[in-house]
Amino acid sequence: MATPVVPPKKKRIGVMTSGGDSQGMNGVVRSVVRTTIHMGCEAYAIYEGYDGLVQAGDLIKEMHWDDVRGYLSRGGTLIGTKRCMEFYERPGRLTAAKNMVEKGIDALIICGGDGSLTGADMFRAEWPGLLEELVSKGQLTRAQVEPYQHLNICGLVGSIDNDMSGTDATIGCYSSLERICEMVDAVFDTAASHKRGFVIEVMGRHCGWLALMASIATGADYVFIPEKPPSEGWEEEMCEIVTSHRKLGKRRTIIIISEGAQDTDLNKITADQVVKVLSDQLKLDTRKTVLGHTQRGGLPSFYDRWLSTLQGVEAVNAILDATPDTPSPVITIRENKIERSNLQECVALTKSVAEAIKQKDFNKAMQLRDVEFKEYFDSYKLTTSTDRVKMRLPEEKRLRIAIIHVGAPAGGMNPATRAAVAYCLSRGHTPIAIHNGFPGLQRHHDDKPIGSVRTIEWIDVDPWVNEGGSELGTNRGLPSEDLPQTAHCFKLYKFDALFLIGGFEAFTAASEIRKGRDKYPAFRIPLLVLPATVSNNVPGTEYSLGSDTCLNTLIGFCDAIRQSASASRRRVFVIETQGGKSGYLATMAGLSIGALAVYIPEEGINIHMLSRDIEFLRENFKYDKGASRAGKIILRNETASDVYTTQVVADMIKEEARGRFESRAAVPGHYQQGGKPSPMDRIRAQRMAIKCMQFLEETFAGKSKDEVAANKLSAAVIGVQGSEVVFSAMGGEDGLEAMETDWKLRRPLNEFWRPLKATVDILSGRPKDSDCC
Ligand code: ATP
Fold first, then answer.
1. Cα 110 to middle of ligand 1, angstroms
2. Which residue among 16, 87, 124, 350 has the greatest number of ligand 1 atoms within 8 angstroms of its CB, and so is best to mutate?
3. I need a labelling partner for 698 at 20 to 30 A (CA). Which of 91, 387, 586, 690 fits?
């Protein structure tokens, strides 16, 4: 008789959340559990952080596919977190090791702050010694420990503070920033009504990211952060800035202070102290608002759902790729690229920032933080500084920079314009606003200047910091509608550069002008496109202003609609998303709400797909139970199919469900463009717009028209590409227009996000397309 084949033990991957909770931790758990199962392994949740590892028992539980339903949209952490004193000591870690072996757990994925990750790394380093000790003490046998010789761990940074070096963002920081901005925006109105001052304290004991980004996103007058304390005499400087802003006509004063704010001697600066300075020295009616724990709460934003999901997938892959010699990784993000970094190095770098602050070496602290942080700090200073005169360029280097919005409105257009104007004014350039796009420019009669082209002042744009839509006015009109008149106006207003903020139309407009240079010398000026469109379909970038705002709005819509079905049960919603011929919005929204299926124009819709998805729905509803029984969502891009419209898909599902469930169509339409821009769109608008102005100045100031036209980058797009922000030339053989643009379908030829579509399907458990068509 043949000996029975014993299947090899499946790898068991444990996931835990540790340290302070942050929005997005649940997304990590869902993604780790489902990816682990998808990869043929077993997933275990360690409840209550390291305490669960030390106490074991029911705190270590196997997780099944359906256990994490609904996790993506929940705030906090559903598997709990706790500070665990025992784990700081070796005996605590010894017990944890014993429990892990007994539960058969091979690898750990920890989502937490630098403390949690330090603990994890120490645990891994001690692991062989811990096993030896357990055997020598007779607590485990050699045979028991034999299969567990190497512990693989992987870190994910979950923290609202964004205090980990080596990553641009931590899971939770953008949701928290969103909470803060909502509240600061709300204070705006009352502050302006009473001409009051407000000092708003935000979290961040050792890290000023939240305070700085909130200040940029809300146009605060002054900020206090721990890593860059104000210089001696800050009281006078702050009062001077506030007074100068008031003189310009500002009716409100907002000061944002980190809870860890300090002066250069490391003495704490409190919100009360700041209130007193403003009240005593300026006689300003000033109030204090401490935002406290509200900053941790609320639903995770789009970005945190996206980040937690993709980083969770990457963490499982890193664990499965690991060898005994692989250094422990931590999953990080640079711009748009998710990477594996060295956990020890990132933790050490983070600690060195704290050390530099302790040593009062604040310049070093700023350098050790990410480059991006310093850039943000400098750009913030530029928009609040009273001392603009010092930064002026010599007369011959100054440019007349025209700013135009093109295409549909998108969140971030106004903040980008505000930042560009601030930069221009600081350097002595002349910012010129073109109202109502190219038709506004072309509407000009004779040689009399018209109202739609005018130089713009700081006080015009300062309130635009958190305004949605386009204050300049935007439309789809193109230069080609009247090219001679467009050229005439360029000449008349003496434009030295054109800064276009918009989507595919802005790209098209710049291309038309570039191509008209031979005929119209007035077009031989630099043309720079800052992509701003909810569809995120501009060649040369993986991110467009406004797409984050749109996705936040869209997932809020999906959450609410899904919730509406939790009483009636068994309902599927077919929701139509915008995006033109690009499936970006539908796919990203699908990833961050856990859509059952996503229909995009790139793939189309066919009968096999529908019938397979209806079957999949039947299966899903069959196993649905309890609280997880909210509605299911299918997302359909508006142009995914001419025949299978949103209503037709919903009707077909209803018909084929044969009474087992029902379906409804929902079209959020222009609601998706959102209200106020998201904080991410606001801060990126500022950073990108300033980069654009610097680029124009450094590359083209003082250059002749022919020199400009000869430079390939004189018609360019600024964009995020992988881990970098780059300027890409539009023209030329290898330029964006020739190599990366699908002009007919109005989208990039290679859409960076396409591989993520498979991830949406994997995480929803949807059968593969190849299974049906
Ligand atoms: P937050 O950013 O919210 O503070 P954190 O992960 O830094 O998150 P900590 O309280 O520092 O939060 O750490 C969480 C848990 O990690 C601790 O309660 C402890 O169990 C474990 N831990 C932290 N530092 C160490 C360490 N040096 N050695 C062993 N375990 C540690």
1. 11
2. 87
3. 387
Which residue has tokens 């028992």?
57
Least confident of 200-209, 259-268, 377-386, 749-758: 377-386
Q: What is the pTM (predicted TM-score) of this model?
A: 0.94
What's at 511, amino acid-wise? S
What tokens does 568 get? 């009636």
Asked if 713 contacts 727 with a C-beta cutoff of 8 angstroms, the reply is yes
Q: What is the DSSP string of 142-195?
A: HHHHGGGS--EEEEEEB-SS---TT-S--BTHHHHHHHHHHHHHHHHHHHHHHT
ipTM (interface pTM): 0.97
Atom of ligand 1 nearest to the CA of 20: 3
Pairing verdict, β 197-202 and 286-290 = parallel
- Which DSSP letter does residue 397 get? G
Q: What separation in angstroms does the CA of 703 have from each of 394, 494, 715? A: 14, 15, 15
Distance 81 CA to ligand 1 centre (A): 11
Angle between helices 413-427 and 371-384 (to 10 degrees): 70
723-732 pLDDT tens trace: 899 999 999 9
Q: Work out which ligand 1 atom sits closest to the CA atom of 86.
A: 20
pLDDT at 773 over 50: no
Residues touching ligand 1 (Cβ under 6 Å) are 18-20, 50, 83-84, 87-88, 112-116, 118-119, 122, 159, 161
Cβ of 734: how many Cβ atoms within 10 Å?
A: 11
pLDDT tens-digit map of 583-625: 999 999 999 999 999 999 999 999 999 999 999 998 888 766 6
Task: Give phi and psi for 181, each to the nearest 5.
Answer: -65, -40
Strand, coil or helix: what is 62?
Answer: strand
Element (H, E) at 26: helix 25-38
Contacts with 190 (C-beta within 8 Å, 6 or more apart), sequence order: 196
Token readout for 391 is 């930064």
Q: Are strands 724-729 and 741-742 parallel, antiparallel or unpaired?
A: unpaired
Query: What gap in Å lies between CA 614 and CA 609, rounded to an integer?
Result: 9
- Six token digits for residue 190: 């009352």
Mutate to test the pocket of ligand 1, among 25, 86, 88 (most ligand atoms within 8 A of CB): 88
Please, where are the H alpha helices in 569-669? 584-593, 607-622, 646-657
Which residue lies with its CA nearest to atom 25 of ligand 1?
119
Ligand 1: which residue has its CA nearest to atom 12?
A: 19
Among protein residues, the one with the nearest Cα to ligand 1's atom 26 is 119
Q: 335 CA to middle of ligand 1, Å? A: 27
Query: How many A from CA of 116 to the centre of ligand 1?
Result: 4
**In 324-412, which ranges are continuous DSSP H helix?**
343-358, 362-368, 371-384
Residue nearest atom 28 of ligand 1, based on CA coordinates: 119
φ, ψ of residue 738 in degrees (nearest 5): -80, -40
Which residues are annotated as catalytic?
A: 161
Q: What share of the chain is helix, strand, coil (3-state, %, to 5)?
A: 50, 15, 35
Check: CB of residue 521 under 8 Å from CB of residue 704. Answer: no
Ligand 1 centroid to Cα of residue 608, in Å, is: 51
Whole-angstrom Cα distance, residue 351 to residue 332?
17
Looking at ligand 1, which residue's alpha carbon is closest to its atom 3?
A: 20
CA of 83 from ligand 1 middle (Å) equals 7
3-class secondary structure, 526: coil
The token pair that represents 561 in the structure block: 């609609």
Are 129 and 83 a contacting pair, CB within 8 Å? Answer: no
- pLDDT mean over 467-489: 95
What are the pLDDT digits (tens) for 671-706? 888 889 999 999 999 999 999 999 999 999 989 999
Nearest CA to ligand 1 atom 2: 113
Mutate to test the pocket of ligand 1, among 81, 84, 94, 116 (most ligand atoms within 8 A of CB): 116
Q: How far is the CA of 224 from the centre of ligand 1 (A)?
A: 26
Q: How far is residue 171's CA from residue 466's CA, in Å, rounded to a whole number?
A: 24
